[in-house]
Each structure stands twice: as structure tokens, then as C-alpha cells.
Amino acid sequence: MRRTTVVSLTIIAALGICSPVLAEEKLFDGAGESDEQLRALYDEAGDICLRNPSRDVQVAVACKAMTIYGLALNERGWCYGLTHEANAEKDWHRCEADSDRFSVDHLTIF
């Protein structure tokens, strides 16, 4: 019983340490796509992800691709929307203090 409690607390502590954080290291430093190309790829993936209610694998991949393109653009100083904006108002802009940013944890959440 005591061992189970210790293992459970260890797992909970590890999960707390791995909480959502912004990527501190550049994941896509050597990427060859231009900013415009990455924004177009983000939009193409969004057309599949956001406008399709199915649970197909293609849709899940498109949704993850949006996060990856968003992370790459964040690394280049581009953000998608401000924290106080409605989704319909959001657009790509140079990152500011209150800009929305993508986080690495979204790569694994379905």
C-alpha cells in the first residue's frame, strides 16, 4: 500500500513538472519554409481540421499539423491572435506580450 502511494505521488509530481510550457529551444531552427509558406500550410491544415466534424486520421493529423506550423511561426516571432480576441477575430501578427502562442503540449493531446 505504501509503495503504491509513493509511486502515485511520483507520477503526479512528474506530471506537474511536465505541465504545458512554451518551447524554449528552437524546434524548427533549420526549417526552409518562408513565413508566408508556413502561414499557407497552417491555413490548409485548418481547412481540413476546423471544418470537418469527422474523427478520421487525416483530420487528426491536420489538427496536429496546425500546432506544428504554429510553433514554427512562433519561433519566428509570429503569433495567431491576442488572448482577449474571439477566434473569428484572430489573425497572424508580430508577437506581443498578450499574443496567443502555441505550446509543445498540444502535440500530444487529442
Can you offer a commentary on this structure?
This protein is mainly α. It has one domain (22-107). It is 45% helix and 5% strand. It has 3 helices and 2 strands, in the order H-H-H-E-E. Helix 2 (35-49) runs antiparallel to helix 3 (57-75). The protein is globular and about 35 Å long. Residues 1-21 have low confidence and may be disordered.
Topology:
Elements: H1 2-17, H2 35-49, H3 57-75, E1 78-80, E2 92-94
Antiparallel strand pairs: 1-2
- The domain count comes to 1
**Distance between the ends:** 33 Å
| Number of DSSP-assigned strands | 2
What helical percentage do the residues reach?
A: 40-55%
Which segments are poorly predicted (pLDDT under 50) over 5 or more consecutive residues?
Answer: 1-21
Strand content: 5-15%
Number of helices: 3
Largest sheet: 2 strands, antiparallel
Strand order of the largest sheet: 1-2
Shape: globular
Q: For the residues shown, what is the average pLDDT? A: 79
Structural class determined from secondary elements: mainly alpha
Order of helices and strands: HHHEE
Our Rg estimate from Cα atoms comes to 17 Å
Brief summary of the model shown:
The protein is mainly α. The protein has helices at residues 2-17, 35-49, 57-75, and strands at 78-80, 92-94. Keywords: Signal.
